[in-house]
Amino acid sequence: MLNIKDLHATVDGKEILKGLSLTVNAGEVHAIMGPNGSGKSTLAHVLAGREGYSVTAGSVSFDGKDLLTLEPEARACEGVFLGFQYPVEIPGVSNLTLLKAAINARRKYRGGTEIEAGDFLAWIRDRAKIVKIDPKMLSRGVNEGFSGGEKKRNEILQMLILEPRLMILDETDSGLDIDALKVVSDGINTLRSPERATVLVTHYQRLLDYVQPDFVHVLARGRIVKSGGPELARELEEKGYGWLEAA
Amino acid sequence: MKLEAYRKAFEQLAAGLGDTPSRDSRRAQFERFAAVGFPSKREEDWRYTDLASLSEKQFALPADGGDALIPQALADSQQLVFVDGRFDAARSSTQQHIGNIATTETADDDGLAALNAAFASPGLDLQLAAGQVLAQPLHLLFLGSGSATGTMTHQRHRIVLGSGASASVILEFARDSADERLATHTLSIELGANASLRLYRLQRESAGATLLTRIDARLDRDSRLRALCLDAGGGFVRHDCNVTLAAPGCEAEVHGLYVPQPRAHVDNHTRIVHAAPHGRSREHFRGIVGERTRAVFSGKVVVQPGAQKTDSEQRIANLLLSKRAEVNAKPDLEIYADDVKCAHGATVGQLDETALAYLRSRGIDAATAKALLLRAFALEILDHVEFAPLRRHIEDILDFPDDPELDRLIEAIA
Amino acid sequence: MAANLSDVRQLVRNQKYSAGFITDIEAEKVPPGLSEDVIRLISAKKLEPEWLLEFRLKAYRRWLTMTEPKWAHVQFPPIDYQSISYYSQPKSHLDGPKSLDEVDPKLLETYKKLGIPLKEQEMLAGVQNVAVDVVFDSVSVATTFKKKLAEAGVIFCPLSEAVRERPDLVQKYLGSVVPFADNFYAALNTAVFTEGSFVYIPKGVRCPMELSTYFRINERNTGQFERTLIIAEEGAYVSYLEGCTAPQRDENQLHAAVVELVALDDAQIKYSTVQNWYPGDEEGRGGIYNFVTKRGDCRGARSKISWTQVETGSAITWKYPSCILRGDDSVGEFYSVALTNHRQQADTGTKMIHVGKNTKSTIVSKGISAGRGQQSYRGLVRVLEGADNARNYTQCDSLLIGDQCGAHTFPYTEVRNPSARLEHEATTSKIAEDQLYYCRARGISEEEAVSMIVNGFCKEVFKELPMEFAVEAQKLLQVSLEGAVG
Question: What pTM does this model have?
Fold first, then answer.
């Protein structure tokens, strides 16, 4: 599904990713771990198409398409979803407005028709239950006045509603207490299926207790320095990253 | 003919100067003033303050040797005393920092600046070298003698702080006889990199006085200006305070409180120009406007192109307490950069009736309750006064009742 | 009604005017320039009564002594008032393009985006011989409307018709809200106005329809010096919509309109404007100067006047729809969205003059600046001595898009009554890159994201507009902002 080959990327002229390669197949969950500044978030934003992140070498294909040539919105419509580490507040634009526009953008992209208002509301209510968000909150501005935990749950809600095929979650677990972490994990597991793939960018092993990864990768100095199964995460938890960085 | 008396006074001054370059440049300034005259109400900046009547006045220059009652000096500070616009060395605790500021070019259309420059007598000239710290605040007292009726005084001042230098300066205008007089003051301030200036401007002129002051400050990189303005007098007063944050990282705070006496007119004009990125400005003015008084506040914040990451906030709050009082507030924003955070707010209102009722229900009489609430309103500004002796001095001027227990009560209901 | 035929004869005899001039009269056109003769001619052409001519002349004589206001935050080259033709009514079909092929393709592109029907596009672009009736098949519609209005006793007609039919009302109210010498442009308008609407709602009548649909049919070639007068008698209600969401082809550079509203006891007038005159091109060439005086007089107790405006057009806007809250317990409202893109300049806001007791006013102003646009909010809240318990709430927010534009706020507050409570809040914000990226990461295009954010910013004003207008106004903002980001 996702094929990253020898990816090099710079931010503000500084090279952050230095030859990263990774293959993610449908049905798989990959966890990407690593110390601060190793390039985890950069990878997430390069995949989502943030401006200012320039790819200097390498390729990324998504279902055989060259992802890097697509505009951010086209990537989203293709089925790539980025859960932001710091979800943005957009005062004045309600969550419902954003969601409806996002759903319809996707439908339009695939040549479909706009969603019926009744269907839309029923779908939102259904999904909101999973992440325990009061639908009333959705008439407020996007993330406006939300607590840190609410923002993260809102990211997962958007993901549940949009049903992407590739979910990239950038430190969605950081700053959450245990209850919220469970809610977020339930949301991720709800979408887990043989047709979908997940990339969890995380700092802590804790999330992986609730969302079992198939593969764990360690990112250091802009490339993947070690890959393994779930046991690698536990090893990291015990030993830290030092032993890998030295390698 | 208009301005005739001013010309007469100028000729008198010029005769005393003899044939000097100073006389010539003063004459050039006077002619400029004569051509432009006093600002008119038709000018946007003078919309609420009418100086038209000044043109017809017959002000003369004061005679030498005026005597005034000197108030007790503030603790831990140096006094510089001026009587009728002249430095009184004998009554000052220091003779330093006094100078005749050279007449500089003024804008062609600024009649007031030209008038001030033409007649200017010596004033504060504080120049600190890099890193120099003024140990004690300088307290400048501008007093008037009883014999100075119908006179005018004009003074120029300057504060130049080298990089990293710091100082505190208090300007207090306190002529106490109720005769007709005119005074103009200009103060130019230049703060070097990382310099810091605390400036206090206190005004308690009496009725009959016309006081026109103007401050122009230019802030270099990372420097800080903290100004506090208090108006508690009964005269006809106009203040201009222009601050330019000329280099990145500057900070300007200009706060003020006006509590004009009956029949007073107080007009505060501020203009804060953000000319460089990462500047921060804060402005908070409060007014208590009572019987037969007129208060004007006009504050402009300009964010010039390129002054990104500017963070500016301006707050104006007025209590209007009488039928025969008037408040004109005008907080302007002019923004030419996009990545900025600017907010301003202005309110006009009355004392909170429920707070008043609450205090009275606790056995406090209405007058005291009212005074306490007024003091609480004013404290927001007075809390910016860090020099304790000055803080006490200001509280004395304002004469609010002081009762810590009641303060706590007020805090509890606020 | 004694028409000033003698004046016309006098003019014809006058040596200054050659035979060619008479031909011009036949062609409904007056050569450029302004003089008392021209005003007499306009008045004569419209068969006006003597008092109206005197009113015009009085305004003209005062106008000669006045100068253009300079305080607004706008810049433009001097206007040569002698190069303007002050009477060219009706703007002949012969002047217009013969078919849509001759119309500026950019204008047509905009129509398409706004979803304007083809026939209506032709009308807006001023294509020849497209009669209003054909466009809307509306003879019957208009008749139905007219019948319905007449049954209610509502008068809605061109001002010149009202001068003939109801001179009593016109004479009583014309110039009673905006005096003839109120300001430079209002004086000019008073001297030379030729077009405009008259609305009269009798006592206790709630106007049975929004005076919009009907107006839209008739609104074509609104004059350069338009004059509108709306009177709501005791307990009457009317909602009036002015303007059109499509940019109009218009050759006139200067527009100086005057609108006067009078609300008597318990009356309510809601006046909504969507202004989308030609704004000039990206470099600021061309475009309308829209210098308008709009004022409502809450003359009666408990009356209410509400202004809502969406201003996206014109090269320069100078406009301050105001309320004089004379009646006790009267209410004034001003809701505004103004957008400046490219090199547009707008200096707009309101005045709320509190005269009566317990008067309330609300001001909500939303300014959007993009490109090299310059936008100023200028508002005055004045509380006079007798206006006990006056209340005002003002909120003016600016949204900046790009780093070349400007947003300015000039609120004036003048209070002379100690029971007044006024509150003013202003904020400035920008559309941030990270907000756009967030939306795009959810599959929403940048343009749509901008329009979502802008509409969110403006929603407090849009909700004051009648439903169908609000939708069009949103579309309009979207079109006007195209190319502003990215």
Answer: 0.78
